[in-house]
């Protein structure tokens, strides 16, 4: 075991002169192995961070290793369960995956540092909340990305729409105006359940709730049903398929090839749109998903990553220093500017205010949420009853009846052990 071997070395060294502390000697150098996911940060950013961090922390070496998303869950679990000498000391994980790793006591509890040093109260809730297990903080927010409305400025002008909507009612009204005979007011696939989740949260509903340690699906609550009704009314103002999600076919291609006024997507989708149709250069705009009230963006699902520290690290303090640096204001805003992300704190949104798509994303991120914080949520997504529910409602089935059925299936999946 890495920590056990280190302890034995320290005991032996102490008999001579103290563990690594010979008179006049330099502090013992420690290596922190960091796993980051492919495409999360540019190589230029990682190189720059490594150089500056090592210059400022003369007793720490960084070993940054880029990982692929495919198969990463099993790889992280193995790292948390074994004490291999070259195992990771800091790991980037998807924000909704923290509970899965924390459940087995594989992660270091960083609650004290979060509250005392890192300003936890200012973190984006869509990153901070899923980083908790119980009342403890294990995942430290790194960066966020969420959906906005990407729209055609030229089609808005043609329809006499001079400004993006500020409320959901305004959004419906202008989308109906844009839904002409040869065009679509919006392309919204029938099974885009992440977008539906935002509408449910905006109404005060939940996908599932935990009462006395028991999770239950709640798609049949009045609030959740209102969220589904708004989705139904909006989706009808375009030709999105009711039995497919936003990737079948990819909505970027649909938007690029036709007279589609709007889609709901992360701003980065614009790159794929322009690659397929360069003629749209300069014609794309962005605004946050509208909320019920003017001046406040609507709730959205927040994706992104947290940083965690394995409990079996043998360089605990050094690993925490790395997390503190990467998630602190200096390097976090640098990452956001470099990669067009949303910083991890609402107070840092000004750092990306100059980029229209990212600014819209940051406004939405302030109202961001994540899926229910239970490791069993992956069972829900594996056989997703929400998608089936949405299709049935959009085909005319009774919403309350179908919501009860879907909520029951979610409850069964969350009880899986």
Global mean pLDDT: 91
> Helix/strand/pairing class, anyone?
alpha/beta
CA radius of gyration? 24 Å
Main beta sheet, described? 6 strands, mixed
Question: In percent, how helical is the residue content?
Answer: 40-55%
CATH superfamily of the largest domain: Periplasmic binding protein-like II
Tell the overall outline: globular
Low-confidence runs (pLDDT<50, min 5 residues)?
Answer: 1-21
CATH class of the largest domain: Alpha Beta
CATH topology of the largest domain: D-Maltodextrin-Binding Protein, domain 2
In the CATH hierarchy, the architecture of the largest domain is 3-Layer(aba) Sandwich
Strand content: 15-25%
* Tally of contiguous helical segments: 18
Tally of discrete structural domains: 2
- End-to-end separation in angstroms reads 30 Å
DSSP, total strands: 13
Description:
This protein has 18 helices and 13 strands. The model is unreliable at 1-21 (pLDDT under 50). It has two domains: 26-146 and 302-369, Periplasmic binding protein-like II (D-Maltodextrin-Binding Protein, domain 2, 3-Layer(aba) Sandwich); 148-301 and 373-414, Periplasmic binding protein-like II (D-Maltodextrin-Binding Protein, domain 2, 3-Layer(aba) Sandwich). The strands form four sheets. Strands 1, 2, 3, 6, 12 and 13 form a six-stranded mixed beta sheet that branches. Helix 11 crosses helix 12 and helix 17 packs antiparallel against helix 18 (399-414). Helix 2 (43-56) links the parallel strand 1 (30-37) and strand 2 (60-67). The protein has helices at residues 2-16, 43-56, 72-81, 98-102, 111-116, 125-128, 153-158, 168-178, 193-202, 222-235, 251-257, 269-276, 316-327, 329-339, 356-365, 377-382, 385-394, 399-414; strands at residues 30-37, 60-67, 90-94, 132-133, 136-137, 140-146, 148-152, 208-211, 214-217, 262-265, 284-287, 300-308, 368-369. By secondary structure, the protein is α/β, with parallel strands linked by helices.
């Amino acid at each position: 075991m890495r920590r056990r071997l280190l302890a034995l070395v320290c005991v032996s060294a102490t008999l001579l002169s103290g563990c690594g502390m010979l008179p006049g000697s330099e502090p013992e150098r420690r290596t922190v192995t960091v796993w980051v996911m492919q495409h999360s940060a540019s190589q230029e950013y990682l190189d720059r961070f490594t150089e500056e961090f090592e210059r400022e922390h003369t007793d720490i070496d960084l070993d940054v290793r880029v990982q692929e998303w495919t198969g990463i869950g099993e790889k992280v679990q193995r790292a948390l369960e074994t004490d291999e000498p070259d195992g990771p000391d800091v790991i980037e994980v998807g924000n909704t995956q923290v509970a899965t790793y924390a459940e087995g006591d594989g992660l270091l509890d960083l609650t004290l540092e979060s509250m005392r040093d890192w300003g936890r109260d200012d973190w984006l809730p869509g990153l901070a909340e899923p980083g908790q297990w119980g009342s403890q903080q294990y995942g430290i927010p790194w960066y966020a990305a969420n959906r906005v409305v990407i729209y055609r400025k030229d089609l808005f002008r043609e329809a006499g729409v001079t400004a993006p909507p500020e409320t959901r009612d305004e959004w419906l009204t202008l989308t109906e105006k844009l839904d002409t005979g040869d065009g679509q007011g919006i392309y919204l696939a029938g099974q885009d359940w992440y977008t539906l989740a935002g509408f449910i949260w905006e109404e005060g509903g939940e996908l599932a709730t935990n009462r006395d340690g028991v999770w239950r699906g709640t798609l049949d609550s009045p609030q959740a049903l209102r969220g589904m009704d708004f989705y139904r009314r909006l989706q009808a103002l375009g030709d999105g398929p009711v039995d497919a999600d936003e990737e079948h076919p990819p909505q970027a291609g649909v938007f690029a090839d036709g007279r589609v006024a709007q889609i709901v997507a992360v701003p980065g989708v614009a790159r794929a749109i322009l690659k397929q149709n360069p003629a749209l250069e300069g014609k794309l705009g962005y605004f946050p998903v509208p909320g019920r009230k003017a001046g406040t963006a609507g709730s959205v699902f927040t994706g992104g990553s947290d940083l965690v520290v394995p409990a079996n690290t043998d360089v605990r303090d050094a690993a925490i220093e790395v997390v503190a640096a990467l998630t602190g204001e200096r390097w976090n805003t640098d990452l956001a500017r470099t990669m067009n992300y949303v910083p991890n704190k609402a107070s840092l949104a000004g750092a990306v205010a100059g980029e229209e798509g990212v600014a819209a994303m940051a406004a939405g991120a302030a109202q961001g949420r994540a899926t229910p914080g239970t490791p069993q949520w992956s069972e829900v997504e594996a056989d997703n009853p929400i998608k089936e529910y949405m299709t049935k409602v959009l085909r005319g089935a009774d919403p309350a009846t179908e919501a009860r059925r879907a909520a029951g299936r979610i409850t069964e999946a969350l009880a899986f052990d």
